[in-house]
# Entry
Amino acid sequence: RMRSYFISMASIFVAAVSLLTCQSNTASRDAIDQRVDELLAKMTLEEKIGQMNQYNGFWDVTGPAPNEEQARKKYDHFKQGLVGSVLNVRGTAHVRKLQELVVKESRLGIPLIFGQDVIHGQETITPIPLAEAASWDLAAIEKSAQVAAAEAAAIGLNWTFAPMIDISRDPRWGRVMEGAGEDPYLGAKVAVARVKGFQGNDLSAPNTIAACAKHFAGYGFSEAGRDYNAVDIGAYTLHNVVLPPFKAAVDADVKTVMNSFNVLNGVPATGNKYLQRDILKDRWKFNGLIVSDWASIFEMIPHGHARDLKQAAELAIHAGNDMDMESYAYVQHLKSLVEEGKVSEEQVNDAVRRILRLKFELGLFDDPYRYCDSVREKSVLMQPDHLTAALDVARKSIVLLKNDRGFLPLNKAQKNIAVIGALAADKNSPLGNWRAGADENSAVSVLEGLQKYTLAIRYAKGADVVVGKPEFIRETAVNETDSSGFREAVALARQSDVVIMVLGEDGFLSGEGRSRTNLNLPGVQERLLKAVHGVNKNIILVLMNGRPLTINWANANIPAIVEAWQLGTRSGDAIAQVLFGDYNPSGKLPMTFPKSVGQIPLYYNHFNTGRPDPTGLVFWSHYIDETNEPLYPFGYGLSYSEFTYSDLKIDTTDRQAINVSCTVTNTGRVAGEEVAQLYIRDRVSSLVRPVKELKGFRKFSLEPGASQNVQFVLTDAELGFYDADGQWLVEPGEFDVMIGTSSVKGLVGRFSR
Ligand code: GLC
# Structure
């Protein structure tokens, strides 16, 4: 009886604390809203519009750079209180200088908010987000975002333009590296982990920053995978595939959202009222701010949606866009639009409230220089526990794609190892293309990582991947012709017992503005691989890339293949630890690897069609020159262990909470981590559903011979879907369920409800 007494007292205490917490949050929100309204009442129309104006700071240019005339005008605007935010200014000295100019010289001294693309790390660079998604380890992903936030805040920033949560099924698009792949369920979970990691529990703390869910919406469906291209998708796909990660981010209290460059079904996202007001602000009750993407208000002119910048400003504010990044549209035209009655001052007030609220929550009014501590700046950047966290998430992001005859892991006593490929010595490409404040060549290369294990290594470049030194904003030329290094590489391979080849993409061959029409190893690399294979079959292929690649020949001929993405500062260490077995690879693909670019879009959660199966005649859904199957499917990844699934149980006693479970056993010889994935299929529904939908996953470690019971509960939240109006439907009927090690392998069952 005493035990139950203590349990009930504890639960009362927990309830009281949560109630008090909720009340205190509401109280602090009300207090902030009161301070916002008091300040708003003092502001002139020009000063209000100034808060809606965001300028680039020229430290970096992450979009079409403005001309010098505009640059001179910008400086005066800071002093006149006509700038609310700046991006791409970094370092406490620069931030403090600009903040002092605004706080001391403008009439009301409203502090600036400083933003930057801290996409996967500030100075300690963690894996590109597509790689982190392959870890399926939400705690590691959250920790990675915490590290990024701590370092960003330490250099004066209070806002990151991340997480990018665009679902995409098209690896031709260069920005797939920036997202979480093709699946809305995994994408939503990763989005929440990153928002929580960036924002923490106290936005005014000196190690948290405001996050930004981007790009709203549909950018990942750019036609033909060509960046900035039009997007034309049905509302059914919009609501079931594109929007769920954004809804999850809003429910996780993301403070800002960035809209997207693309037209969505005929209307540019920046001027799209349905997206920004109807869905985001009205239906989802989003109370943060929406910032345009770089010059995307202006770009409504070339889109053919606005005749001039003034009309673009009018369309954007009516559609719900609160802040103008680098279009100069609001600062030039919003005042006259209000005076002409085309825009109400209340619309301006609503936008300004959202911006001021964020500045109060960040603590910038209490202390505009709270993020400008130069002592902290030095102590926080690249600190040991950040580097440890970067290694941890990097190792977990590696996906073992092939391992014939247990070729891997390498014996640590292995001698006479050849390492071939320019990327093996590359200390820049592992940083990816969104590398924020990372120093040049600050990544541990594969070669350096391996040399911590053994010096029985000889290196030959074989061939350059690119020509010259690639830059963030300039085109990167692929080496299509220079094979002069092959001879040396082949000679080395001939004399060696094992060859580790590191091939793939330069860090600037994926990312924004870097769409490709093919997904092969760029340039002469496959020729190099074949030449080496001609003299030595004992090859381990390590891929370093920002997107799925069609490595069909390698998959058919190379005994071991490791997907190592672009893993950030600790890249080489993570890869070496996997190759030598100190870390048993546990990653699973968050995006399908097609066999051919001609299959795209190719993704696991596709519809069945009316002719899904071969009939012996041509009349079924297929190609005459390729199979429908991917090279590697969504959710796929091998281990040095073996995991066996057994004993699937489906308990429908409670129709509102279907319990599905099974046992997973490590039948291998080494400990390892598995990602057990749960998929459903709604077999008959008013709107057809995919042949498979991820609705749960568990990542866990197992010692050799050990077993674990994995359990999932399926409720309306997992079994329903959106209709084309965005209404959630839950329909009775039969459901298939599968628990397995990938989207194509597992135990299957069926239930009705
Ligand atoms: C870029 C990107 C966006 C980024 C912004 C600021 O063009 O589209 O993701 O946050 O501009 O750099």
